[in-house]
Each structure stands twice: as C-alpha cells, then as structure tokens.
Amino acid sequence: MRDLATELGLEIDDEPDLISIAQFHKNKNNNRNRIDEKIVNEFIDADIETENHRIIARLPFNTIWTTNYDDLIEDAHDKILKRVDIKSEVDDLLINKDNRACILYKMHGDKDKPSKAILLKEDYEKYYYTHEPFVSILNSELITKSFLFIGFSFTDPNINYVFGRLTHRYSDRSKDHYCIMKRTSLSDWNNSEVKFQYEKIKQDLFIKELARYKVQTIFIENYNDLTSILQEIEKRYNSHSIFISGSAQEYGDFTPLEAQNFIHLLSKEIIKANLRVVNGFGLGVGSAIINGALDAIYSNPKKYTENQLLLKPFPQFQSGGKTLDQLREEYRHNMISQAGIILIIFGNKQIDNDILNADGVKKEFEIAMSKGLIPIPIHYTGYIAKEIFEEISNQFDKYHLSEEIFNDIKKIKIEKDNLENAAIKIVSIIKKIIK
C-alpha cells in the first residue's frame, strides 16, 4: 500500500488504517484498477513457502481459514500431494473437490481474482451481504472447533464481529481457541523505553480482551519461535504413529508361523493402544502387519478405525521420469515423516543363495534418525534389527533415547509360548515414550 499512499500525499508509516487508504485511492480515481494491479504484482508465483507452511500442510487440518491472498498454503500442500479444495468466493462453496485433504477458506479472496479481493473499506461494509455463506460457515466452525490463530492481528472487522456475536450468544459454552503472538520488546520500538512501556500496556489489555473471546494467547519472544512451536505440535501428533520397518526372507530362530503370529499380535496391540501403524508392506512382514491391524479394527469398529492403518506399498516400476530407486526414496521419506517412532523387526533379504541384512531397512532407520524419530529395534528378531540395536548401544542418547527407555528395549524378549506378552511389553515402551 506504500505506493498508493504516496500517490495520495500520505505517509504509510503514519497511517494505521490501511483499509481506508485503499478506499481513499479508489475514491480519488473512481476505480480500483491500480489496487488490483498491486495485488497481481505483489503476490507472485515465485514466492516460496516457509517451513511454517510446510508443517501446517503436513498436519491433519481438515479446514484452514486465511485472510491472505497468496497461494503459499496451497503450494505447500501440493508438494506433498495433498489436494486442497479452495474456497475464495461464494460460487466455490457450491462445488466440492473429490479426495480433498483440506478445505482452504480464503475469506478475503485470491491473488488470481484481484477484482474480487476484500481490501477496500466498502468491501468490508458489504461483506455480510456479499459473503454471507462464508460468515455462516465461520460461525459454525468457531462453535464446533478449536482454532489456532497464527500470524493474525485480530484487527479484521469481519472476524471480530463474528467473535463478538458468538461470545454474547454462547458465553462460557464457547470452544477454547489459541493464538500465537510475539511479545512486544524494547527493540521493536527503537529502544525507546517510553514507547515500549506504552505498547506493553496496550498488549496486556489486548490479551485480556482476547480472553473474553475464549482465545488463549501463547507468547513467543522471536518470530523464529513460531517454527519451534509448530515443530513440537507436529512431533507430538506424529508420536502416536508407529512406523514398522522390516523385511524377512527367513526368520532366524523363529518358524515362519511363529514370526507371523508375533508380528500380527504386535500390530494388533498397537492399534488397541489407539495408536496408528505406518508401513510400506515389507517382504515377509507386511501381510502380518495388515492382518494384525485389521484384526483389532474389525473386532471393535466403533472404537478403532481404518485411519489407524496407513499402508504405502513401495512402487515396483519406474514412472514419471524417475528411477525406481528415486521413487522408493521419496516413498520412504513420505512414510517416515508421518511417524514419531520407528519399530525395527528382522530385516533381511535374499541375494542369489545368500541371506543378507536388508540395506533398505537400514536406510529407513537413517532417514528416521534425520527426522527425529525414536527407534525401537527389536534385537531379539536378529538381522538388521540386532545390528541397529548394537549401534545404538554405544551411544543411545545420540538416538533420542533416554537411559530408561533404552534399558526397557534391551530387556525385550520374545518367548515363543507367549508371543502376546512380548507384543504388550513393546507397546508399553511406546506408551512410556509418548506420555
């Protein structure tokens, strides 16, 4: 808006009401062409999403609301193959996309439709008539869901009006909402103690006003702290997803039936603990993992759901101009990014007539470590699981493990006459990690 303010003979830094600046410019020129051009030129496709956008895309939000015009949220979703259903005008609400992972409500419009962007004072004045369905949906969402506000100033008149009506109507029955806000600091005001103290008083009063709307404020000292908070949210969500890594051409001290039963029971107990199983359908283990998970789900479908089983079989042929190795690498990263714990079992493959430790399972372990997952190698199953356990033993704290958890893993034994007990003990370790 700086250039437009200059054309009006105003200094943008002295004008807090930017909505009025936009309106004044239209009034002077009898059209909003220059404003639309600014939107087109300021928000360009070359802009790159931040890590914050990428984390938000990875988290399982089924609805996102924004007053921004840019498409960085959409870009972040596209890059991980999540389909976004964009609602930027009333007509968009009438059509739904199939297989959508998220609905993105762009309540003030989109950069690709600049003439319809909500920016002028008159746009806000008419909003309840021109965008009444958006207001109704937002009302419903605020009643039924808890919102997390990120980078939002709460100066938008539409949002404040909706909040005000809901507060008076539902009072203490309203959902709790949360916002992340930077605490004002002396450096924000050119080290002016007088200005800092004044702004601090204003911020404290503003926080109390938000509390009236059932919005709890989470303070950060620096904007970079926002990324840390989002990373922690993602870590805690992912901690309930267990990536089971393993493959087996043979099962060492176990018969195929004993090994399959153990894997089946392990997967079943993970589901019964209200956790999620993530698996790439490894040779010799994938079928038992699926059967165990489905056994738990179908035994009590009102309590457990198929959403607790995320199965991503590895591609078998190259496609899209990528080699098979490249595709499998992408699959591994995608699967492992959705988990917080990696559970490693067996891990061998056959090359000619030789049984070798599976380098693919070792690669999954290395990817998991780079992403901060907590490893549970079941050394009793042998092969690469045992090799990884021995590697961890030398410096377990380097692998995100406490001494207590490592000792619990060390004590794991799989008694052939009580396979269920071993599965229960492993799940108890998982519960201890995520509590």
Q: In one word, what is the shape?
A: elongated
Structural class: alpha/beta
Question: In percent, how helical is the residue content?
Answer: 40-55%
Strand content: 5-15%
Biggest sheet, strands in spatial order? 9-8-7-10-13
The profile of the biggest β sheet is:
5 strands, parallel
CA radius of gyration is 27 Å
CATH class of one domain equals: Alpha Beta
* Average pLDDT figure: 90
**Uncertain residue ranges:** none
- What name is given to the CATH topology of one domain? Rossmann fold
Assign the CATH architecture of one domain.
3-Layer(aba) Sandwich
Number of DSSP helices?
A: 18
Q: How far apart are the termini?
A: 49 Å
Total number of strands = 13
Mind explaining what this structure looks like?
This protein is α/β, with parallel strands linked by helices and 435 residues long. The protein has a domain at 239-434: 3-Layer(aba) Sandwich (Rossmann fold), CATH 3.40.50. It is 47% helix and 14% strand. The strands form 4 sheets. The protein has a 5-stranded parallel β-sheet with strand order 9-8-7-10-13, with helices on both faces. Helix 4 runs parallel beside helix 11 (224-238) and helix 8 packs across helix 9 (157-170). It is elongated, with a radius of gyration of 27 Å.
Short summary of the structure?
This protein has a domain at about 240-435: Rossmann fold, CATH 3.40.50.450. The protein is about 45% helix and about 15% strand. It contains 18 helices and 13 strands.
